[in-house]
Amino acid sequence: MSTMSHSTATIATESNRTMSSSMKESDLFFEESRDLLCILTGTMLEEPTATTEERAQSSAGLDTSEMEGKHDTTTSNTTSTTTTTSRLRFHKINKAWLRILGYPSKEELLSTLCFQDLLHPEDTLDLTKMLTDCWQARLRCYDGTYRWFCWAGTTTTSTTHTNTCMMIMANGRDITSQRKVQDALEANSRRLQESLSIAKLGQWELDLTKNKLHWSEESYRLFQMDDPTHFDHSYQSFLNIIHPDDRDMVNQTYLEHLESRQPYEVVHRLLLPGSSSDSSTPKWVMESCRSEYDAHGNPVRSIGTVQDITELKQAQVDLKAAATKAKEADQLKSAFLANMSHEIRTPMNAVIGFTDLMLVDETATIPEEHRDYLETIQNSGKLLLTLINDILDISKIEAGQLELENKVFSLGEMLKTVEYNACGVLSRKEGNDICFKTPNTIRTQKNFSSSSSTTSTSQQTSSREPVLIKGIQDSLVGDPNRLQQVLNNLLSNAIKFCDKGTVEYSVKLLMRPTVGGMLEFSVSDTGIGIPPDRQQDIFEPFRQAHGDKGACTLGGTGLGLAIARKLVEKMKGEISLETSVEPEDHGSTFRFTIPYAPAEIIPAAAPAKNASGGAVGSASNVPKLIGNILLVDDNRVNLKLAERFVTRMGCQAETAENGHVAIAKYQSDLALRYDIILMDKEMPVMDGIEAVREIRQIEATENRKRIPIIAVTAAAMAGDREECLDAGCDDYITKPLNRIELNTMLAKYLKSR
C-alpha cells in the first residue's frame, strides 16, 4: 500500500513537472512570438449597432463611458440589432506589442486601454471573422500612425444568469508591407482602368481550347453590353457583333494570323445593340491581336485589344472634306487668276503691241512729244504686266505649282540682259544721281538713256558684250529666266530706294566643304536702308520696307522680295539682308547663293531663252521670214495685232475666229500651203486644245505632214504649257505678244529671206 502511494506521488510529481515545463514553454512562445499575441476578455451583448460617428464619439469619451458603466460596441453604418461585445480589455499581451506598436510598457495597454481604442476609425471589430477565418484591421501605434494586421483567434465562453463572459486568444500578424504593395497595385490598377477608359481601349482573351472569350470592363462598355450574362462569350458571338460588311474580312484576317503567327491590326465597324447595318454613324474600332501556341504548334490562346477610333475616323472624314474644300477653293483661286490674267492680258496685248508698232514704224513721222506719250504708254503697260506677273508668280509659288527649268544657258548673256533692264529702270527714275557699278563697267546718269532707248531694245542688248566673270564658267545649268527675275527684282528694289550714291551688283564663286561650289550674287545700294522693325518681314508678300509711305511714293506691290526669296529657296539657295538706317547712306545689301552647276558640254551659240522661248538679247535686225501663217483667236484686236506683226516680218497671214473655223480652213484645198498655226488656247465654240487634238487626229488619219502649231495663251498659269504640249502643240508663247520674241519663235520653224 505504501509502495502504491509512493508510486502515485511520484507520477503526480512528474506530471506536475511536465505540466509546469509545458506551461513555461507555452509562456515563452507567447512572449517571444513575432506576431501580436494577446488574451482579451469581454462580455457578449445584444444591442443596436452604433454608427461610425457614434463609435468615434464613444472612443473619445472613454473615461466618461467607463465611469458611467456604458459599453462601446463593434460598429457598422447600420442600425440593426446584432450580437456584439463590450469593450475587449487586454488580459495579457506579448513583447511584440511593444516592439511593433512602439508602446513603452505593457502596463499602459493592460491598465488604461482596450482593443477597440486602438482600432482605426474606418475599421470595425468583426468577431465572427476573427474567430472563424481571418479579419484585417489597423491598430494605432504609440506615435499615432497605424499598421495593418491580419487577426485570427479562438474563444472560451462562460454563461451566467445575467450575461455571457468570453476570453479570446487573438493572433495579429503584421501585414503593413503587404498592404502597401496591395494598395499600390490597386492604385496602379485603378489608374490603368482609368487610362483604358479614357483611351477607350478594351482588352480581350480567347481560350481556343474551350472557345471561351473573356472581355475587360472597358470592352463591355465599347460593345455597349450592360448585361454581359446575355452574351455567351464565344468567338462566333463576337463575329455577330461585327458589321456585316466587315465580318468576313475580320474573320479572314484572324484565320490568316493563326496560320502565319504574325501579330495583326484590323479596323472594322461594330453592329451595336439597337443599331442597324446602314447606320450613318457606325462605331469604328481597331483590333490588335497576337496568339500563343502549344508544343505541337497548335494555337491555344489569343489575346488582344480593341480601341474605339470612331472620333478618329470622323476626324479623318472631316479632314478629307476640309481638304476637298481647300482643293476646290484652290482650284477656284487658280481659275479666277487664270481668268483675270486672260482678261487683263488680252487688252494689254493690244495696248503694248500697237504702241510698239507705232514706235518702230520707220515710215511714220511722229512728233517728239507724241513719241514721248507713246513711250509712256508702253512703259506703263509693261509695268502693269510686271505687276500681274508678280501676282501670278506668288500664287503659283504658294500653291506649289512653280516648276524650274534645268537647261544650259550663258551666264554672261543673262547678266547682260540684267544690266540692260537695270539701265532702263534708272533712265526712267527722275531726279536721281546714281552711279551703277557692274562687274565690268561703271555707268552714270548721262549714259543710262542712251543705253536703254525704247526703240532699240534688241540693238542695245545685242551690241554689248556678254558679262564674263573671272574664275566662273560662263556656260551653266539651271533656270536663267528665274535667276534673271531675282536679280531684276533686287536691282529694281535697290534703285527704287536710292536717289543718290551707288547701286552695285557682283558675282563670285564660293567653295564650301559641305555643299561644294556656290555662286554668290550681291546687290547693294547707298539708299535709305531698312528700319529694324521692318527687317523681319521684308521678305513677306505685300510688305514694304517703308510701309504705306513706300507704296504711295515709290510704287510696287511689295511682292518683289517675297518672290526673290521663294525663287532662291526653290533653287536650293539662301538669301540674306544687311542694312542700317544709321549712318546716313549706309543703305542695304542683299546677298543670295545658288549651287554652282557648270555645264559639262558647252554647245555653240546657246544663249539663254526667256519664258516665252525668245532668246535673251536677240539680234537687233528682226529677220524677214518666209511662210504662210494661220492665226486663230476669238478677239479681233488680237488677230489684227498678230497679223500686223507677222506681215511686218514678211509672212502671209490668214485668220480664224475659233477652233472650228481653223479646222475647216486647215481641211480646205488651200490647207497644204499653211506653214505654221498660231492657236489661241481659250476660245468659244471650240477652244485651242480641242482644235489641236483634232488637227493631229486628221494628220494621222489622212497621213498628212505634221504642221507646227504654237499655242498662244493669256492665262500663263502653272500647267498651261504642259497642257498645250500634251495636246500636240510644238511650242508655247504668252500674251502680250512681244514682237521680237514672236519673231524668234517663228524663226525656229520658218525660212529666212
From TrEMBL:
Location of the PAS domain: 93-138
EC number: 2.7.13.3
Cited InterPro entries: CheY-like_superfamily, HATPase_C_sf, HATPase_dom, His_kinase_dom, HisK_dim/P_dom, HisK_dim/P_sf, PAC, PAS
Gene3D superfamilies in the cross-refs: 1.10.287.130, 2.10.70.100, 3.40.50.2300, Histidine kinase-like ATPase, C-terminal domain, PAS domain
GO cellular component: membrane
Domain PAC, chain residue ranges per copy: 264-321
Location of region: Disordered: 1-20, 47-83, 446-465
Chaperone as UniProt keyword: no
Signal peptide location: none
Source species, domain of life: Eukaryota
Positions of post-translational 4-aspartylphosphate modification: 680
The keyword Glycoprotein appears for this protein: no
Domain Response regulatory: 628-750
Entry protein name: histidine kinase
